[in-house]
Amino acid sequence: MSIQLMKGILQQLSFQAQQTAAPQKSTFLSDNKSDDKSLHFSSMLFNSINSISQTQNVAQTNAQDYMTGATDIGLNDVMVSMQKSSVALNLGIQVRNKMVNAYQEIMNMAV
Predict the structure, then answer these.
(1) Burial environment of residue 59 by CB neighbours within 10 A (0 to 12, 13 to 18, 19 or more)
(2) What does the record list as coiled-coil region(s) (predicted)?
């Protein structure tokens, strides 16, 4: 599953959430916030996707550096960064699957 596809799904979910919640204003987060910064689910998810992408880029860079003969990186560093990248990607895929399942359940609810 590519990062671009996950971003597309995120944008579609954000758009649909804005369409359904536009007339109503939720005060759930505004009652509990202590400063001007409020947490939005979409921004948290977008930051997570960017973090996964950065982890993959670091792993790829480490692997390329090792293959070109850089002396400051060892095989163990390459393997650890690749495993971190793999775990992060698998976590992202599982979160996406849970989001799609939750979305499908909500869409199948009778109103």
Answers:
(1) buried
(2) none
Distances (CA, A) of 108 to 26, 36, 67, 111: 23, 36, 51, 9
pTM of the predicted model over 0.70: no
Segment 33-64, tens digit of pLDDT: 545 456 787 888 888 899 999 999 999 999 99
The dihedral sign for the CA sequence 58, 63, 65, 71: positive
Distance of CA 57 to the CA centre of its chain: 15
Q: Which residues of 5-22 are buried (b: 16+ CB within 10 A; e: fewer)?
A: ebeebbeebbeeeeeeee
CA 72/CA 14 separation, integer angstroms: 43
CA–CA distance, 63 with 73 (Å, rounded to integer): 9
Q: For the residues 81-110, what does the mean pLDDT come to?
A: 92
For the chain, the average pLDDT equals: 80
Question: To which residue do tokens 């649909």 refer?
Answer: 16
- What single letter denotes the amino acid at residue 90? N
